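[Meeting: bench + compute handoff]

Bench side (C.D.) handed over the final construct sequence. Compute side (W.E.) agreed to return the predicted structure before the next meeting so the bench team could plan truncations. Sequence as handed over:
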Amino acid sequence: MRPRHSEVVAFIRNDPAFRRAWDRYGKELAVRSWMTGPEPMLPVPAAADWNLPRIESKAGLASWFNLTVDELGWYADLKGINPKQRDPRLTHYHYTVLTKKSGKIRLIESPKQHLKHMQRRILTHILDCVPTHPAAHGFVKGRSIQTFASPHVGRAVVLRMDLEDFFPSFPARRIQAFFRTIGYPERVADILGGLCTNAVRFSSWKDSALNKTPDALNDARRLYSRPHLPQGAPTSPALANLCLYRLDCRLAGLAKSAGAAYTRYADDLAFSGDRDFAARAERFSTSVAAILLESGFAVNHHKTRVMRKGVRQHLAGLVTNERLNVPRDDVDRLKAILTNCIRHGWQSQNRTAHADFRLHLAGRVAFVESIHPVNGAKLRKLLEQIRW
């Protein structure tokens, strides 16, 4: 990641060789030239051919969004004023608090209309132009849970690991550094990073505190109070993938050296190999955890699984033992729902009050069809017999 101007200055000033030269030749040193005006785009060599919009100033970025400079600053909120707002109408996000099975809290942060439109523009015109690592399969066009799980079919062992607190683990400074790396001047990169990150004010948790334990609530408040990638923003999945490019390179290299395959779907990591890899899968997982820790992530060890041939190997809800398949339990459960819809009416089975239960069932059947066409065809026949 490209450093800030202030970091470069601090590095040079603290460099022993520079300090010795300054002590010896300081009176003879002079500024050769001053940079004035907008800073130019300076992408890293790999980004030189990417078709990115050329934006070199704060005014240029405001014009790109069709906003005034003041409006742009209010949305980016680099001074952290938004989390202190007491009136929710002045904030940029809607919040939904969910409780995980572990008892920890997950916060869904949905941007309001105007900010969401700006984020979608960033996604379409900037982030979609940057290639992701081949190992990344989540939220990438042309890839899916099928492409994520397929490399691990029929392997002697499958190792599955999970990252803890995935989106909140990306601080705003990391996102800003990414925009600098692809070429944007520091001021522009800071604003783009501000538009794509969020810090949650403490008052947002008041209405949600009733059913949560004090420890879980306090941990969540600390975690989400720092500027981070919000789960619910259209830019967050793409930025997470792009910021993990170097990590994916390291893990893919580690897997290759161990004779294993590696893929990632958002926060789910999968490794697989044959007999040699099976003999050292546990030690390999320790090496992976160390690399993740160096990169600023923690492993959810409760979800780490070493799955050998004698057990059901599953990734992202798909079985990978001999061929890619949907778990039998899931197929049987869906078959029972469809059969009961035929016998007793679809209203009797819509227990979770789906707004469009027909579309919901059609989506589940289509998913099975995409993985196992034979089973999917049988379910499709049942679906067509339901009277709506």
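W.E. noted at the follow-up: The beta strands are 93-99, 105-111, 157-164, 260-265, 268-273, 298-299, 305-308, 314-315, 318-319. C.D. will use this when planning the next construct.
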